[in-house]
Amino acid sequence: MFTTPLQPAEYGALIDAHYHDPNRPGWALFDIDDRARGWHWIDTSTPDWADADAAFRAFVPDSARRRFLTFRGWTVRRIEDSAHLVASLLHAARGESQPGDEADLLADDLLMLDLPGYERCADINTPLDLGDGKR
Known about the structure:
135 residues, alpha+beta, three-stranded antiparallel beta sheet
C-alpha cells in the first residue's frame, strides 16, 4: 500500500511503477502539511482502491487512527499524474531529504504501529544525552 516508511517489497513495486508506468493515476495520502505519505494506483477491480474513502481505509485500516488523522487534516486525493508523488516517496524511502522534510514520529507511529517488529526509534520517556552533560 506504499505508506512511508516503505517495506522492501513496496520499494521494489514503486521502482517498477516509477520506471514502467510513471503517469499512472493513483490515490495519495497527504498529511496536514500536504506531504505525500502514501500512494497506490487506482484499481477499480478491488473495493479497497476503487474510491477515496476505500483508499483511506486501505491506507489506515484502524478506524480510530483514521478518525484521528482526519481530525489532524490528513486526506486522500485522486492524482491523475502520479510521477512526482512516486518519485517523492522513493526519495523519502532512500532517506534523501526534501525541502521542508522533518521527522514526524507521530505520523510514523500511526501508520506503522501494526507492522510486526515495528519499534519507535526513540523512547519518549528516556532523556536524550546531548553530549554536553545535559539531558
